[in-house]
Write a structure and sequence with these properties.
The complex is a heterodimer of chains A (95) and B (307). Chain A has 95 residues and is of the alpha+beta class. Chain A contains 4 helices and 5 strands. The chains are: A alpha+beta (95), B alpha+beta (307).
């Protein structure tokens, strides 16, 4: 049986993917090697696909860096309010 | 160039070739030219790689040219071996007795570093019924022991160290090679699997005592049969623990696999896309287990659905 590959979507320097039936997105910043996991709603808002803004989630619930090498950097930064500011803190260009 | 099985030659023939123009050894779709003057490589190659295509009269194209040469040193200094790839030495020299492990680690390095557009994950991988089962894990998680246990029953060994994923298809490209076992795992496999053919242990490596299990001839022959990933299991051995299974979302599994992928930074977006495609149809689990029997039994009953 053929398997449908999920679409990888780009937003500026970051690419992300959502697997069928899951509520999180995996984001990858090729230039830096950062890997993040984000709530699906946050990713959809960032790429402009959200039809309705859901309730705001705390950054700690919604986003985390999967690449442990970069956790320390984020811990020393001001708390992120959303995915956009988290990515901007990492130096990612979004436009 | 005439290719025979390496086992068709004597250890003395192989030794002469290693010290001279080099031995051409074909491992899956990689052709290696190997030279060594340590006198300690011919016998383990003859035992563990006897079913692999080889030539004692090297000519033509090869992917990797590897040397394992005695390091020049004063008589009072320890005798050491140096790995070389195309004239470069990417690792520090090791005691001479570790010539064979250094060959294995050097070949891993060549594949992980020079695999073109393939994504290379640090993970064991086996196959049954067309579905590949990927077993990533930190050192001590038990992935090589588990890989050996599966490969010595009814699973086909694709690799015990490197899961090579094709960018074009998302399938795993097999590279079956001897399975590396450490410390207690050597006795577990030796006592639990009468058919297992192990090398003599090599002591005092940076991983402790290690030994290698010879892969099945059928796995070596089937190197061209790629497989789609059906399952990813993150195993964790914990002595005395309860057996627990947790389903892992593919998003989490992808993020974890990326941290185990040698060349994802080099491949960039293409590498990301390769791993996404590879995981598209996979079931992913985290399993904590207290003994080999419990996890092999669970895998046997769970991993049965063709992709």
């Amino acid at each position: 049986m053929a398997v449908a590959f999920p679409a990888v979507v780009a937003c500026g320097d970051v690419v992300g993917v959502v697997f069928d039936g899951e509520d999180e997105a995996v984001l990858f910043v090729p230039n830096s090697g950062d890997v993040l996991i984000s709530a699906l709603a946050q990713w959809q808002r960032l790429i402009g696909h959200a039809t309705e803004a859901g309730p705001e989630q705390s950054a700690s619930d919604a986003i985390h860096l999967a690449d442990l090498a970069h956790v320390a950097n984020l811990a020393n930064s001001p708390p992120a309010h959303d995915l956009r500011s988290t990515l901007l803190q990492l130096g990612v260009k979004l436009d | 160039m005439a290719l025979n099985r390496l086992g068709a030659f004597t250890v003395a023939d192989i030794e002469r070739c290693l010290r001279g123009p080099g031995l051409t050894l074909t491992v899956a779709n990689f052709r290696c030219l190997v030279q060594s003057d340590t006198g300690l490589l011919a016998a383990p190659l003859h035992q563990l790689y006897r079913h692999y295509p080889a030539s004692l009269t090297p000519s033509g194209f090869y992917d990797f040219r590897m040397t394992l040469k005695r390091k020049r040193a004063a008589p009072w200094q320890p005798k050491e071996v140096e790995f070389g790839w195309e004239g470069h030495s990417p690792f520090p020299a090791l005691p001479l007795a570790q010539t064979h492990p250094l060959f294995e680690w050097g070949l891993n390095w060549c594949v992980a570093t020079l695999s073109g557009t393939h994504a290379v994950i640090h993970s064991a991988v086996v196959e049954r019924g067309g579905a590949a089962l990927v077993l990533p894990g930190e050192p001590g998680a038990g992935k090589s022991t588990l890989c050996a246990a599966l490969a010595l029953t009814d699973w086909r060994l694709l690799s015990d160290e490197l899961t090579i994923v094709s960018h074009a298809t998302g399938h795993v490209q097999p590279m079956p090679r001897p399975i590396s076992l450490k410390r207690k795992s050597i006795d577990i496999v030796r006592s639990g699997f009468a058919d297992a053919e192990l090398s003599a242990p090599i002591h005092d490596t940076h991983k402790g005592s290690i030994a290698y299990v010879r892969p099945a001839d059928a796995a070596v022959d089937a190197w061209a049969q790629t497989a789609r990933i059906g399952y990813v299991i993150f195993p964790r051995y914990a002595q005395g623990a309860d057996f627990t299974v947790e389903t892992v979302p593919r998003a989490q599994a992808l993020a974890e696999l990326m941290s185990h992928t040698f060349n994802v930074g080099l491949l960039g977006r293409d590498g990301f896309q390769t791993l996404v495609n590879a995981l598209a149809g996979a079931e992913c689990y985290a399993v904590e287990y207290p003994d080999l029997a419990s996890i092999t039994s669970w895998i046997d009953s769970t991993c049965r659905n063709p992709v």
